[in-house]
Structure prediction request, 141 residues.
Amino acid sequence: MSDRVLPSNPPDGDPDAARPSARTDLPGYLADFETRMNRLQERAEDSQALLAAVTGTGASAGGEVTVTVGAGGALTDIEFTSEVRRTSPDSLADMVKEAYGKAVAEAATGATEAMATLLGAGSPAMEDFASSLRARGEGGA
Prediction:
């Protein structure tokens, strides 16, 4: 087993702080590891709560249709003004798609902000998350 300190942030946030070595201080190493895992779990739970609260709302250009979605793009609400009565089905469908696209984009922005607190802005994991949202917005599931 190596005495090398693994690259991750220590509990006090100082990346240069020395951690106990598994070779020379196993109880200290395990206590430090448990503290770091508990902190990571708390951050994940916080991010999960933030993500669950994310919504996005979009409206058609004329405001006839308003759509609300959750973080994953699931439709949670749709509202129509009385103006839709004078709209053809094809035009109405286009308005719904337009409003939905705007709502998904807004929700993706909120989801990205929520996840950045856990993954770290600019991290490879954050870039993977953002990339998956972009792919979904371009016709993915």
